[in-house]
Amino acid sequence: MASSDPGCNWDGVFGITNGTAAPDDTAQTNPSHYVYLIGYPILLCCCTMGSLLIVAALLKDSIKTSSTVYLICLAVSDLCVLWSILPDYIVEAQANLGMLNENSSIVHDSIYYKGFGSFWGETATQFSDWTLIIFAVERLVVSLRPLRRRTVPDGFRKAIIVQAVVLFLAILFSLSYLVWYYYYMSVADTCLAPTLPDVLQLCAPALYRWYLLQTDAEMGMWIAKWILLLIFDVSLMAVLWLHWNAMRRHYPGLPVTAAPMTTTTNANATVPRNASIILAGSLTLYTVSQLPLVILTCLKIARRPPYCSYNLTPDAENRATPVVNIISWSNYCMSFFVYCLVSSKFRRQFRSLYRRTSEQASYSASSKRMSAATEIIVLDTTRRDSNERFNRIMSKL
Known about the structure:
Elements: E1 16-17, E2 20-21, H1 33-60, H2 66-83, H3 86-96, H4 105-144, H5 152-191, H6 196-203, H7 205-250, E3 262-266, E4 269-272, H8 273-303, H9 314-329, H10 335-342, H11 344-396
Antiparallel strand pairs: 1-2, 3-4
Helix pairs in contact: 1-2, 1-9, 1-11, 2-4, 2-5, 4-5, 4-7, 4-8, 5-6, 6-7, 7-8, 8-9, 8-10, 10-11
C-alpha cells in the first residue's frame, strides 16, 4: 500500500516492478511456498504429540512447583500457536494446489475466522513469549539467591497468579485484531477497498492510526523480546557454569552424572536445578529459531520511512516469509526434543509414561483374550450340559 510507505519510493515496494505488476504469490511462482506446505503439517504433528507428552509427564509429578506451571503453560500455548494457523493453511494449500473454489464454503468460513484466528494466535504467541521471559527471571533469581527461603506451595500459587495476569494482558494486547477484522468485514462491501489497511485508512482514520501504532509496537516488541531472552540465556548459562565450576572445586572427583540435581533451600522444599537446564535449552532454541524473523523484521523497518535504508522488495519478502515462518514455528514444536536432550528427569518420566501405557495396553489386550477364552469355555460347557440333558431324556423314552 503506497500510503503506508510514503517518501521512500522503492522500486517494487508497492507491488510494481519496472512498470509491471508483481506476479501472484503462489507455489507455482514462488517455490518457497512448498517449504510451508510440507513443513507445517510436520511441525503440527510434532507439536501436538510433544506438548501432550510434556503435560502428561508434568502432571504425573507428585510435587508441583512453579516450574511445573511455567512448563505446562509453555506447552499449551505452543499447541495453540500452531493450531491457530491450521484454517489459513487449509485455504492456502488448496489455493496453491489449484483445488480452491472462491465460492466454496471453506473460503467463506475462513474469512469469518480470520479475525478470531489472528487474535487467538497472537494471544498464544504473546503468552508463550512472556511466560518464557518470566520463567527466565525466576530461574535467574533462584540461581543467584539459592539460600532464599521459599516453599513449594507458595511458589506454585504465585506462578498461577502471575500466569493468569500474563494471559489477561496478552488477550488485552491482541483484542485489536478482533476490532480491525470484524470492522473490515462490516464495511468492506461499501468501502470498496481491497485490503484491511486500505479499508481502515479510507473509512476509519482513527482505527488506521491504531493499526499503524500496533504494527510498529509489535515489531519493536518482537525485537526487544528476542534481545531480552538472548541476554537471559547467556546470563543463565554463565550462572550454571559458575555453579558447576564451584561444585568441581569442592568435589574434584565427582563425575558429571553424579552431580546433584537439586539444591535444598529449606527443610520442606527443593528447587530443581533441572528446571534451569531445561530453561537454558528452551532459551537457546528460541533465540536461534527466531533470529531469521528478527532479521526480516529489521529489514521491513529499514524499508519504511524515515529510515529508507534498505530496499526489501515484495518479491524478496514473499520468497523469504514461508521459510522464515517455518523456522520460527519450529520453536513451538521442538520443546519435547529439547527437554529429552538436556534433562535426564524428563527422559525417565517419558520412559515411565511409555512403560505404563504399554502395560495398560497389554493388560487390556490380555483381558480381552481371557474374556474371549472364558466365553468359549462357557459356551462349550453349556453345550455339553445340554447334550447330556438331551441324552438323559432320550434314554428315558
